[in-house]
Amino acid sequence: MRVLAAMSGGVDSAVAAARAVDAGHDVVGVHLALSAKPGTLRTGSRGCCTIEDSHDARRAADILGIPFYIWDFAERFTEEVVETFVGEYAAGRTPNPCVTCNEKIKFEALLEKAMALGFDAVATGHYARLSVVDGVPELRRSADSGKDQSYVLASLTPEQLSHAMFPLGDSWKTDVRAEAERRGLSVANKPDSHDICFIPDGDTKKFLENRLGQRPGELVDAETGAVLGRHTGVHGFTVGQRKGLGIDAPAPDGRPRYVLSLEPVSGSVKVGSAAGLGVKVIEADRAIWPSGRPLSEPTECVVQVRAHGGIVDAVADVDNDTMTVHLREPLRGVAPGQVVVLYRPDPEGGDVVLGSAKISGTR
């Protein structure tokens, strides 16, 4: 097969490309330029897609002996990922930009271009597994549960998955680094990128305020309605947040306060005790079924609401593209805008992704 290997400049994508070559595929490496000012998107292990990263990707491609190109996706990344991120926060929701990037950039924009150029598949360094059952792809958790990225891939369609390759799905990160060392790849010990790639300093509040300005509102006690303080915008908060609330006086019982809900129209941020964070029912819309098999009846499953954590047994019911999920145990810090992913448990590991949807409400 002709395979386009997406090479970020990190160790995972480099080893994924190497394995595609070893498998006998005709491989071409490509680095996605996602910023008009690439020198601004890395601070140590934070951020990605810098000139440094493109050089690292090129050096890896040279060692592997494959052609290498840089494709400029900066404008589309800004429109589809960055502006969506800003808009969601302005609306009082908490988005996951990695989910959006995989859906809109790596497996929509990139895959579309790859297919137009005659490639059969796109290979990435994601830690997830793909299997084919009755001719239909199934997305599953990776062998390395600590690095599993099936959550951020759960918004992909069957058509996209049928042209995807995840060569690292059966591997552990330590083994991948050791393999990179053996292959002479200079990125073997390069730190992993983390947090939001286009906010390399990690200050999300400042990033949003620079784009949205100040939108003053009140911090309100969810139980009494008392005004506890003021803030500069609901975009500076997310459900479950404890620190940085800007409230001078402690709660009457001396316990911490948390953000319980956001009301962008009124500018109100409601806060209260940890007891108010427990969620028993999740409502979500825009359901996506990676294997093309929508649920037809209430289904026992495992749900996940964050890329790392927020996992609990549940029963999911679906009506068209609307999903209602009843949790067996309450979850804390579940926010509108997050993605809920449903898994079918596998006792031998590698839970199968059933579907995903965007959280619209909780109760």
Give a quick summary of the entry.
The chain is α/β, with parallel strands linked by helices and 363 residues long.
CATH superfamily of the largest domain: HUPs
- Overall number of structural domains: 3
Extract low-pLDDT stretches. Answer: none
Rough outline: globular
Helicity level: 10-25%
The total beta strand count reads 19
| Strand content bin | 25-35%
Strand order within the widest beta sheet: 14-17-16-15-18-19
Return Rg in Å.
21 Å
Mean pLDDT: 93
Oligomeric nature of the chains: single chain
> What is the level 1 CATH name of the largest domain?
Alpha Beta
Structural class: alpha/beta
Distance from first to last alpha carbon: 48 Å
SSE succession: EHEEEHEHHEEEHEHHEEEEEEEEEE
Write down the CATH topology of the largest domain.
Rossmann fold
Please, could you describe this protein's structure?
The protein has three domains: 140 residues, 3-Layer(aba) Sandwich (Rossmann fold), CATH 3.40.50.620; 60 residues, Adenine nucleotide alpha hydrolases-like domains (SH3 type barrels, Roll), CATH 2.30.30.280; 86 residues, Elongation Factor Tu (Ef-tu), domain 3, CATH 2.40.30.10. The protein is 24% helix and 30% strand. The protein is built from seven helices and 19 strands. The longest helix is centred in the first third of the chain and has 20 residues. It is globular. It starts with a strand and ends with a strand. The model has no long low-confidence stretch (mean pLDDT 93). Keywords: ATP-binding, Cytoplasm, Disulfide bond, Nucleotide-binding, RNA-binding, Transferase, tRNA processing, tRNA-binding.
